[in-house]
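Continuing the batch. This is chain 6 of the set; chains 1 through 5 are on the previous pages. Same settings as before, nothing changed between runs. Recording input and output for traceability.
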Amino acid sequence: MTTLSMPTAFRAVQDAEAAAAPCSVVLGADTHKDVHVGAVLDHVGGLLDTGEFPATAAGYRKLLDWACTFGTVLRAGVECTGSYGAGLARYLASQRVSVVEVDQPDRSARRRRGKIDAVDAQSAAQAVPKSGDGQVEVLCMLRLAKNSAVKARTQALNQLKAVLVNAPSALRETLEPLSA
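Output for chain 6:
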């Protein structure tokens, strides 16, 4: 049986991700009555571009076609899917794009930085949950396992020290010079 070193294992995960979704992007939409503003983010959350499209059936097609020029759109964050964003959400779902309704940004934060539709669209895209199967998630699982092992070791050492407090003096004197 062959064991992979950590760097080799991560490279294998990275290669598998690249083969599965060579250019997946996330779409965010700030919706309004007459116009929708879209933002496209790459797989690490970097802004690729923003654009403005009419809130019509033709505009929905243009928005998705535009977003697809950057890669495969697997997920989209859309504001107000119950009102102004309903038509866009239905269209994206019919095109097999997973649609997530996202909350509008905090009004006080929007006032501080100014009301910019492109920034709101970018926030909508950033609010979309990640796929959960990438390299970052692998690292999170490894970190979780390490932290759990460290905690278990600490608890075991604390229990042994507590036992030594009540141990017979001959045993305690023999074991006391030893390190953890």
